[in-house]
Amino acid sequence: MTVASLAWHEAFAVDELWEGDFLDLEIDGEPVLVVHLVGGAIKAYQGVCPHQEVMLGDGDWDEDTGVLMCGGHRWEFDMSAGVGINPAGCTLYEYPTKVDDGVVFVGVPQDGERHYNRCPGS
Amino acid sequence: MPALRRSDWYDLARDLNWNLSYVTEDEAFPEVMSNNYGITPNEKWWGWDEPYKVSYREYVHNQHGKDASVYSVNSVIARSRMFEELDPGWKSAIVAHYGAIAVPEYLAGLGESRMGRFGRAAAWRNMALFGTLDETRHGQIQTYFPYTLLDKEPRMDWAHKALHTNEWGAIAARHLFDDMFTANDAVSTAIQLTFTFETGFTNLQFLGMAADAMEVGDLDFGALISSIQTDESRHAQQGEPTVKILVENGYADVAQRLVDHMFWRSWHVFALLTGLSMDYYTPLEHRSHSFKEFMQEWIVKQFLDQFRDFGLEPSWYWESHFLPELDWYHHALHLGVWFWRPTVWWNPDAGVSPAEREWLEEKYPGWNDTFGVYWDTIGDNLRRGEETKTLPETFPMVCNMCQIPVVTPAGFRAGKLESPEPQIHIHEGRQYVFCSEPCKWVFQLNPARFAGHTSVVDRFLGGEIQPPTIPGALEWMGLSPEEMGQDATNYAWAFEGFEAPGAAAS
């Protein structure tokens, strides 16, 4: 994946999303969950659970541990890396992000694909 | 909590599988309790792996917190006037829900405990133990909450009573749930209860229903359903690994048949309970979507994704029967349930005031011409003071599979069926009536399982209900006059935009 293949979309101003909070967005027609982790890192992931595509933004979020639990079936993800904790081995698709002049941008690959991982429950 | 991460010890502690030497596999896992569908030896099941994992210690910790939380909410709200102030249609929805669901939750505990003993892998039995405890909790909590509302709504006792009566809706629920889990083997239960019904229907429904309850201001029910959903979302995950084992061993056709069978049956009861609740009983201002939209966006999409994930196909009746029914079946049921309202334990909310009809027409284009016309006549009769013309004098035919009244004439009238006739089937000299081709198909899959059952109408015509009259049948169903359903708003909907009742009658 090269930078040239990305379309950068302006998402929000950094000071609109406090550390420890997240935003549920639709970017380029795709559901995207943007997390502002405690410590300052900003991450963007697929907005639906890879299990059965329930909206992750409706789940339970623990800002201190950075763990998000999907409301659909209790699947847990470490949002600092987008990796599954329970079950392990299921990873969220991560979009590139950048901050430019106080504005957060999310990069969407222009490859005609839908950007998400799916992990059937077994 | 333990110092080790769960993943460091979980599999070792969980996988207590061993080969049998003192008894045969068939003796330990009789087919009637655990149908392996030809997948032997038992080691082939030992790869069963639940996606979401929890230890017993974590389970107890979590459940204690959930119970403490939800019973606290109930205790506080019991001292308020919250229930009295709820919309009458919403009250009907939850009275119906409790009656149809509370005791079956307890029965689901039997199905779970059967999997807890006869599941063919230790991991599965472990999950099913939690499921057993979950369902016991759900049975208890959903009889306790309505119990605390008895002084405000005496029919809340139907939470416990309904499944012990011969009320027709209770028979339909009992027939379905007996087939699905009370009298099902462990393997089939995992596919039919946890994969098809819970993963497919109720877990998603409970997510939406909890949000709807909060929206209408029913914090008590919202907290209850939300708490239940957090359990359901976990134990429902017994289904996917079981499907995977069947598919990996070349038995995708078995999984497909079990899903197709139970999807259809679940759909019909779901349309009866949830369809009416979403499109007619929930206050208009709080409806976030129509029942059809909910089905399309959640249930249909999820099933199609799951069929794809596991290499299964949409059911044979998907395009021909299921999708078309989304447009008319629950509207027809609603009309019937409202007309036969003395036969149910809740107050059906007609939900057809001018504003509600506008919404129905928007969500179901053509509704006014197909179903609205019946309500026009009913409204005319009520405005003329002729309530008796809006009440039943006899009974409809009842389907010998789903045990729900046959509403094919309304489907035909709506232009969705080629004939108003029900499906007739002769088996060993007895005539069976089915509301649809898939209901007949389910019967034909295993006639011995269903042939002995008699519907309410079979019993009525067979002389088991005496006297053979509407009052005799209502008494047989366990409905006293005080318990029989009435219009939820005392016909207010029929007079909106018309002169007052007194003026109309004079």
What does this structure look like?
Chain A has 122 residues and is mostly beta strands. Chain A has a single domain (6-109), classed as Rieske [2Fe-2S] iron-sulphur domain (Rieske Iron-sulfur Protein, 3-layer Sandwich). In chain A, 0% of the residues lie in helices and 47% in strands. Chain A has strands at residues 6-13, 21-27, 30-36, 42-46, 60-62, 67-69, 76-78, 83-86, 88-91, 94-95, 97-100, 103-109. In chain A, strands 5-6-7-8-9 form a five-stranded antiparallel beta sheet, with no helix packed on it. Chain A has a four-stranded antiparallel beta sheet with strand order 2-3-4-10, with no helix packed on it. Chain A has a three-stranded antiparallel beta sheet with strand order 1-12-11, with no helix packed on it. Chain A is globular and about 45 Å long. The model of chain A has no long low-confidence stretch (mean pLDDT 92). Chain B is mainly alpha-helical and 506 residues long. Chain B has a two-stranded antiparallel ribbon with strand order 1-2. In chain B, helix 4 runs antiparallel to helix 11 (252-281) and helix 10 runs antiparallel to helix 11 (252-281). Chain B has helices at residues 6-14, 25-28, 56-77, 88-118, 122-147, 158-161, 168-182, 186-216, 219-235, 239-248, 252-281, 291-310, 318-325, 329-339, 354-363, 367-383, 408-413, 437-445, 447-450, 456-461, 470-476, 492-495, 501-505; strands at residues 423-427, 430-434. In chain B, strand 1 and strand 2 (430-434) form a beta hairpin. Chain B is built from 23 helices and two strands. Chain B is globular. The mean pLDDT of chain B is 95. Chain B has a single domain, classed as Orthogonal Bundle (Ribonucleotide Reductase, subunit A). The A-B interface holds A 51-54, 58, 71-75, 86-88, 118-122 and B 6-7, 49, 51-54, 199, 203-204, 207, 229-230, 233-234, 236-237, 240-241, 243-244, 301-302, 305-306, 309-310.
